[in-house]
Amino acid sequence: MAENHASAAARAADADDHQRPALCRSSFIPAYSDVNDDSLEGSAFRPLIVSVSGDSHSDDDRPFSGGGRVPVPPFSWRRLWLFTGPGLLMSVAFLDPGNLEGDLQAGAAAGDALLWLLLWTTAMGLLVQLLSARLGVATGRHLAELCRGGYPDWARRALWLMAEVAMVSADIQEVIGSAVAIRILSHGFMPLWAGVVITGLDCFIFLSLENYGVRKLEGLFAVLIATMALSFGWMFIETKPNGKDLIIGILVPKLSSRTIRQAVGLVGCVITPHNVFLHSALVQSRKIDPDNEHGVREALRYYTIESTVALVVPFMINLFVTTVFAKGFYGTKEAGNIGLENAGHYLQEKFGGEFFPILYIWGVGLLAAGTSSTITGTYAGQFIMSGFLNWKLKRWIRALITRSFAIVPTVAVALWFNTSDSALDVLNEWLNVLQSIQIPFALIPLITLVSKEEVMGVFKIGPRTQIATWIIASVPIIANGYLLMDFFSSEMRGVLSGSVICVAVLVYASFLFYLIIRGMKLPNSSI
C-alpha cells in the first residue's frame, strides 16, 4: 500500500511538473542549488525581497525565507504600488550625464526638430527594458546568469568582458558628470579629481540604505529623479520656450543632412548595455514564483505599467533639457562648442536666472543625474560579475571591486583633463564609441533568450513580436555603426591604423555572427 501511495505521489508530482511552463528545466539555466546564496541575490536584493502577498504586512521589506507563495490577486492600485520601484532604478539610465549631453547638443544643433525622435527612441528603449523584465520574471534568473548557462566558457567570458567595458565606460561618464556638478556648485573650489572621489564615497553611503530595506533605496531614487525634474523643469520655465514650436517638434518628423549626426546620437544612447542586464535582476526584488503562471502574468502586467510610467518622467526631463538649449543656442556661434563641462557657464551667460542663478540649477540637476546613475552602475556591476562568473564574494567586497573598476581610471582621467574642457569632450566621444560597440552583446542574448520556449515556457514572445523586436533592435545597432564609421574615419589615418581597424571589425562581426547562430541552436547545441 505504501509503495502504491508513493508511486501515485510520484506520478502526481510528474504531472504537476509537466503542467508548469518550461522555465527552469533547460540544461543551460542554472538550478537554484547551483548558485551560491550570496550571488543568488541575483543581485544585492537577495535578502531584501519585497513581499507582494496579500497579508497586512506586505508593504514591509522582509527577508526572503522561501516557503509557500501566495498567488498574486486581481489588479488593484495597492498591488501596483507594491511592484513600483524597479522601474525607477531602470529609468535612471535614460537620464545619465551621457544622455543629458546628447540632449543639449541635439537642442543646440537642431533646435526643436528632433523632439519627435526623442519620443520614439524612448519608446524603443521601453520595449527593450520590458523584454529584460519579462526574462527576469518568467525565469527567476537575470540575463547574466542565463548567459552563463547558455554559452560555452570562452563566449561567456567574452560577453562578461564586453559588459564590463560598457559598464566602466558609462560609469566614467557618470562620475565625471557628478564631479563637474560638484565643481559648479563649489564655485570652482573643488577640482575635478576631488569631485570624483566624493562621488565614489557618497555612492557607498547611499548604497548603505539597502541595509534598511529595498524600499528605502527606491525612495532615494524617487527623490533624485524628482530633483532632476524640478531643476530642469525650473530651467524650462525660466527660458520660456515657444509652445507651438515644441508641439510641432514632437508631432512632426523632420530630419536634415545637417542634423543627422545629432539624430544618430540620440538613437544610439537609448540602449545602455548594463541597464539591460540590470532590469532583469531588479524585477526579482519582488517575491514571484516563476513556476506560477498566473502570478507571472500578473507581475508582467504590473511591471509593464510601472516601467511605462517610469519612463514618462525621463522623457519629459530630456525634453526640458533639449528645449532649453534649443531656445538659447540654436543658430548661434556657440552651438558647436557646448558640452557637458561648459554648458552651465553658457546657460548663465545667456539666461542668468530671474530668481536664482541658472548655473546652480543646472549643477543640482546634473549632480542628481550623476549620483543616481553611479549607484545603478554599481548595482549593474554586481549583477554582471556574479551572473557571468558566479564569484562567491560578500556584497560589500563585490561593490568595492565594481567601484574600483570605474573610480581608479576616472581619477586618472580627472587629473589629466582637469582644466581642459575640449579634452574631456574628446574623451566622451571615445567612451561613447566603447559603449556603442557593446550594445549588440546585450541585445542579441536578450532577444534570443526571450524567444526560446525552453527558457521562457509559455511566456516566450511570438514570431511577429520577434520580427518586430529584431527590427527595432537593429535601429540603435545601425545608428551606432554609423557613428563608429564616422568617428574612425575622422580619427584614424594611415595604413597601420586602417589595418588594425579592419582586423578588429572582422573579429567583432565574427563574434556577433556566432552569437546569432548559437542562439538559433539553444539549448541543445554544445558548440
Task: Describe the structure in your own words.
With 527 residues, the protein is an all-alpha fold. The chain has a domain at 18-66 and 90-153 and 166-420: Hydantoin permease (Orthogonal Bundle). 70% of the residues lie in helices and 0% in strands. Helix 8 (192-207) crosses helix 15.
CATH first level of the domain at 18-66 and 90-153 and 166-420: Mainly Alpha
Global geometry: globular
Q: Please give the CATH architecture of the domain at 18-66 and 90-153 and 166-420.
A: Orthogonal Bundle
Radius of gyration: 24 Å
Keyword list:
527 residues; mainly alpha; Hydantoin permease
Structure at a glance:
With 527 residues, this protein is mainly α. The protein is built from 20 helices and no strands.
Give the topology, please:
Blueprint: H1 2-19, H2 77-83, H3 86-91, H4 97-110, H5 115-139, H6 143-150, H7 153-185, H8 192-207, H9 214-239, H10 243-251, H11 260-268, H12 273-282, H13 293-329, H14 343-351, H15 358-389, H16 395-416, H17 421-450, H18 453-456, H19 463-491, H20 495-521
